[in-house]
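Bumping with the actual sequence this time:
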Amino acid sequence: MANRLYLPPGSRLLFNLACLVLVVLGLRAAATILVPFMLALFLTMLSLPLLLRLQARRIPSGVAVLLTVLVNIAVLGLFLLIVSQSANEIRLAVPRYLQQLQSLVLSTQTWLVERRVPVEELVLIDLLNPEYIIGLVTGTLRGIAWVVSNALLVLIIMIFMLAETAVFPDKLRAALGSRDADLGRFATITHEVQQYLGIKTVISLITGTLVGLWVWFLGIDFPLFWGFMAFLFNYIPSIGSILASIPPILLGLLQYGVGTALLVALGFLVVNITLGNIIEPNLLGRRLGLSTLVVILSLVFWGWVWGPVGMLLSLPMTMIVKIMLENTSDMRWVAILLGPRAPRPRTADAGRQPGPEPLARH
């Protein structure tokens, strides 16, 4: 028999923490490999319902994969066109807005000093710092440019992932043998992840469209870009909409004054309250939610590990982990801690969860 190394509880805890630190450092060091893989996995999960519907219409798997990839290329091409055009326009407009922003900061500081307000202690002045604003926008554009430069690699990985879905169920069935419970649990997890990503994407698309139309109606520059940013940042619950609203509100202040800035803020508020606080929770249900603290910690952690792309993928990845934990008996308590509130006591009828039949029908 092999001898097992016994560690006291304190040493075991330190050993586990050391392993965790090594894993985190490994994730950060391998970002150039893992980030394209995670983006491809994210796009594959979004594209899987379309692929299954095409296969259900008796379209050959190879043709179905090709059509699905072409749809992804068309959508991504449209997004990249919007970003590239807006980036050029923003680059040309930066000197003009930078001068206006500097004038705004100076006038604000003068107004506060006249009223004996300690300006150096105000965080607002730092947020209105032109270098801070330009750095924020530049960092976001740099992250998007990184995604563009790796788009070909992401598409290649996604093609192989989509092709693998045709044979993966048979592989899983052969690997698990007669363990129907494990097969059912995997089907349930897959169905719930698809449900979350699908609903979140539709809500984000509606949010971006409404925001883009609203800022266009108010005459704010770059409406397509702000709608696109609202679409992206809507994947970040709670604070994503706040982050997406800051640049267009500031731009409205620079272009037309306080009244227009307030109207821009009001539009963001109405859209996000209606979609984010009313419609989306009703569609997702109580189980597919996250604690605000978990949202912030996940955003900070994955942003540190993988940069801006990690911030955008942080919440989908955390939600996928939560769904997987909810479908295990020994780790379900972790999923409860990740949720926004304690679950309601289950009754005999309400405790029954829908099975993976909707996934099986595809």
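The tokens above came from a reply further down the thread. Residues 179-343 form one domain.
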